[in-house]
Amino acid sequence: MTEYLIRRTLQSVLILLLITVVTFILIHAAPGGPKQIYLSPNLSQAAAKVQEHNLGLDRPLPVQYVNWIGDLLRGDLGYTFKNHIPVGEIIWPTVGHTLVLMGAAWLLTLLIALPWGIYNSTSEYGLSDQTASFIAYIGFAMPTFWFGIILQELFALKWNLLPLSDMWTMGKEGQIGDLLLHLMLPVTVLTIGFLASYVKYARSSMLEVLDQDYIRTARAKGLGEGRVVFRHALRNALIPIITVLGLDLPVLVAGAALTENVFNWPGMGRLFVQMAVAREYSVLMAITLLTAVFVIVGNFVADLLYALVDPRVKLSRKGGAAA
Amino acid sequence: MKSKNKLTMCLSVFALAGALLAGCNGAGSKASDSSPSASPSASASPSPSASASAPPDANQPVDGGSIVISSFSDIVSINPIYVQDTASGDAQGIVFANLYDLDRQGNVVAEPWSLAAELPTISADGLTYTVKLKPNAKWSDGQPVTADDIAFTLNTMKNPEAGSPGISNVDKIDTVAKIDDQTVEIKLKQVFSPFLYSLFTPLAPAHVLKDVPLKGLEKNAYGSDPAKTVTNGPWKWTAWEHGQYLTFEADPNYWGAQKPHIQKITYKIYADQNTEVQALLKGDTNMTEAVPLTMLDTVKKQKGLNVILAPGPQYEYMSFNFKDDNFPDKYSPFKGQKTRQAIAYALNRQGMVDNILKGTGKLMNSPFLPGSWADPGDRAVNYNYDAEKAKQLLADDGWKANKDGILEKDGHKFSFELQYNAGNSRREQVAAVIQQNLKDVGIDVKPKGIEFSAWIDQNVTPGKYQALLLSWSLTNPDPNGESIFSSKYFPPAGQNAGWYKNEKLDDLWVRGYSVIDQNERKKIYAEAGQEISTDLPYVFLYQYGLPQALDATIHYAEADRPEPSLAYGYLFHAINWWVTPK
Q1: Which InterPro entries would you find in this protein's record (chain B) (predicted)?
Q2: A323 touches chain B (CB under 8 A)
Q3: How many CA atoms lie within 13 A of B271 on its CB side?
Q4: Do A43 and B456 touch (CB under 8 A)?
Q5: Helix or strand or coil: residue A185?
Q6: How close B209 gets to chain A, by Cα (Å)?
């Protein structure tokens, strides 16, 4: 187990390093730069050049990368180019905000999707199953921003029941009740989007298992249906669901840019879009890195969970079963 | 004291240019003005409590209260030496007093809230400007605003090492000399009349920044950390939540005789303009600077919202590129003057104004804003939509239709790419109209939207495009256009991105800024207007504005209403505004 952990960690660091190199090159290959946003008859190119120099933007790319990674190893995420604000000061609050929003949506999704999917697998093509399919189609087909705007139009503007956007009402920062009200609409939008896939995963994964020989054996032994479903089938059916959960984990920090934009949620998704437009390389790199870390951690957690639910999976040197 | 100030002000205005007298009248009558508030009637106010709290006083300013202004971008820095984007400019206008301000007509004036006591006196040779500060002007840390601050600000902006975007406003300065604590003498290297507008600027505090090395000045926390940003305006900066909001509160120690009425201003940042408008409709915000045209009707229909529709200080144009290298067959089809005039005739500009701009636009025939003192009026050629005339001119210039109906000359097909920034719905629509209009006369246009930053970097700045749609915002009302039209300013160093060369105009720009007398200048710009509208480096399309919307809680006297024709005019005289008591 320890050996496995060490091996995985080393692999992860290598992957992270590769990711940073690739994203660094890609981000800088995009035309335009932090100083190209403005165009006015008064801003001379000569002045822009001096600014670039003062901000260190004219140094060769490899030098910029080495500086960046050097700072990172010392725990310094760098500064924004335009106003020299520590990147951490900008990013960490948004990570928290996104975690609140995505965490709430994710939890709600699991609470609804798992039981519902399991139930649907036991009564295939029943009313409940058909309803789930219907919601899944809608959830997949409906653009989230559009759905968000419709909800805003109805609940915030027309009926004036819920806040339109933001995380808090100004002056009520920190009040849980206010936060919950603000969460209602965006969480609804996100949950409907997530539900579509999770109910389907849970259902199909259960159906597949229920079809297996050992389930038939269990039934033949005369076990009750509840015992068959929950003791024998569920544990096996959870494996593919865990994979999906692990893969979705980064979404918890990366956020959903569109939903965050529509609801003006001060999260990472929105930040990333703003910073991409502004070409704030150091912020973009930090967000990419953070997301990458979560992808790796997500996969790792999923692997560990396999071992918990499936005794056949051993975290061995060969690691074949876990892959 | 007060009346004496007014007199000197008028006298110096007179010395500058007689035509500016109107500016004095405006400044003198302001204090006693209490005409009805510009917000809709009191009954339209959605809040029932408004009527309970003394309705007879609805038109009298009250102190206190707060407003929320929305924006779709965050600030960068409000250090006056580095401000260049609109959001930072907004915030700067709230917390900094200017050395001089502009009146509604765009004239430079010394208002009660300006740092300068009176208009500058300009020496007979036009080279020396003497500026006098108000003796009571103070920074928010209690230090006086002095001649050192003026000298520090101008000298820093002028030094290339500092990398200030304002360098071109001050590069004509030779020396700035301190005469006494309140007075400086600015000597120019040459007569340059637009320099007066360079004094319409906030100052940076010398006592805070003078020891910061120039190369590190832009990175200094001054301008990005509210606690370290010493200011001198009616409000001071109290908080900045990155990407979310900024707050400003009336400075209890503000030096001005006239204090702001509004206690707290929140500058709230939204993800885009649509979310901004939604928040205004919901009542989360009280004012937005720019309602997108697609949502204009919705906003107008909403009770209690007041929409200000007017052309603003910016104009859109279609630029021709004269450099052959930018075309696949090494031939710019735009070289014939008649060809360019034909394109101007072929475009239905009035149709664009009526259908796309929805009341925020006005035709423009030269680079001088209609209604400004330099407006050449009828001297500028107005090209009415006339496809037949366009075809005639194209034929005169040697263009003949080929078998596909596309014009050709000497084996070159009249076909070009029209670039604009992707996502700008106004330009997308205008590009489509241009494509259709020019197709009608046999010219093939391929509209192409490109992401803004990349476009500016790869096409606009280096002058590598065939034709493009873009606009100029005129941050100050001076008509000098040398830096965008003169052949001295070819890319990449200059902004004459279309490689346009006209010796007569080159000379007119120089003459225009080399005289101080405004009447003389007016004649020169009338000639420039005629020449440029005949020769057409651009097709000047229209002047356009961004509709401002305010709710019924914001009040102002008629004399203090927002002024859409000025840059940052949506907060014009905000020091005199007040809000409905809650």
Answers
A1: Peptide/Ni-bd, SBP_5, SBP_5_dom
A2: no
A3: 23
A4: no
A5: helix
A6: 16
Q: Which strand (E) or helix (H) includes residue B2? A: helix B2-16
Amino acid, res. B358: K
- Distance, in Å, from the CA atom of B371 to the CA atom of B315, rounded to the nearest integer, reads 13
Which element (helix H / strand E) includes A29?
helix A2-29
Domain termination site, one of A19, A40, A73: A73
Tell whether the model's pLDDT for residue A27 goes beyond 80: yes
Q: Do the Cβ atoms of A53 and B163 come within 8 Å?
A: yes
Q: Could you give the CA distance from residue B514 to residue B194 in angstroms, rounded to a whole number?
A: 9
- Chain A contacts in chain B segment 162-221 (CB below 8 A): 162-169, 215-216, 218-221
A154 touches chain B (CB under 8 A): no
Tens-digit pLDDT profile for residues B505-539: 999 999 999 999 999 999 999 999 999 999 999 99
Query: Tokens 């109805």 map to which residue?
Result: A154
How many interchain CB pairs under 8 A, A with B?
149
Indicate whether B20 belongs to any domain. no
Instruction: Identify which of A215-229, A300-314, B319-333, B465-479 has the greatest average pLDDT.
Output: B319-333
Q: What is the pLDDT of residue A263?
A: 95
> Do B255 and B329 fall into the same domain?
no
The domain tally of chain B equals 2
Residues of B in contact with A261 (CB under 8 A): 271-272, 275
Residues 67-106 of A with CB under 8 A from B: 79, 82-85, 89-90, 93-94
Using the predicted structure, report yes or no on whether residue A235 has a pLDDT greater than 90.
Answer: no
Most confident of A191-195, A288-292, B102-106, B188-192: B188-192
The range of the structural domain enclosing residue B220 comes to: 64-309+546-579
CATH number at residue B164: 3.40.190.10
* Partner A contacted by B70 (CB < 8 A): no
Chain-centroid distance, C-alpha B240: 25
Verify that B284 and B374 share a domain, yes or no: no
The model carries a pTM of: 0.85
Which of the residue ranges A75-89, A256-270, B10-24, B247-261 has the most confident prediction, judged by mean pLDDT? B247-261
Residue A48, domain extent: 2-73
pLDDT tens, residue by residue, A139-161 = 888 888 899 999 999 999 999 99
- At B43 the pLDDT is 35
- CB within 8 Å of chain B, chain A residues 161-190: 163-166, 170
| Total domains present in chain A | 2
Token output for B572: 């014009």
Which among B246, B215, B197, B234 has a CA at the least distance from the CA of B77?
A: B246
Contact B493 A45 (CB under 8 A): yes
B 389-418 → A contacts, CB under 8 A? none
On whether both A147 and A13 belong to a single domain, the answer is no
Nearest-CB residue to B473 (from A40, A54, A93): A40
The residue behind tokens 């809650």 is B582
Same domain, A97 and A131: yes
Torsion over CA: B330, B336, B342, B344 (sign): positive
Residue at token pair 């144009």: B317
Q: What are B418's two structure tokens?
A: 């029209």
Q: Of B72, B538, B76, whose CA–CA distance to B316 is shortest? A: B538
A26 reaches B (C-beta below 8 A): no
Q: Residue B129 pLDDT > 80, yes or no?
A: yes
A78 is a domain residue: no
Q: Determine whether the interchain pair B494/A45 forms a contact, defined as Cβ–Cβ distance below 8 Å.
A: yes
Mean pLDDT of B310-326: 95
Same domain, B567 and B427: no
- Same domain, yes or no: A147 and A282: yes
Residue A93 and residue A68 in one domain: no
Q: Which residues of chain B neighbour A155 with C-beta distances below 8 Å?
A: none
Q: What CATH number is attached to the domain comprising A107?
A: 1.10.3720.10
Residues B327 and B374 in one domain: yes
Are B501 and B558 in a shared domain? Answer: no
Give A46's contacts in chain B (Cβ within 8 Å).
Answer: 160, 167, 493
A window 183-222, beta carbon within 8 A of B = none
Please report the ipTM that was assigned to this predicted complex. 0.84
Confidence band for B44, pLDDT divided at 50, 70 and 90: very low
Pairing of strands B467-473, B415-421: parallel
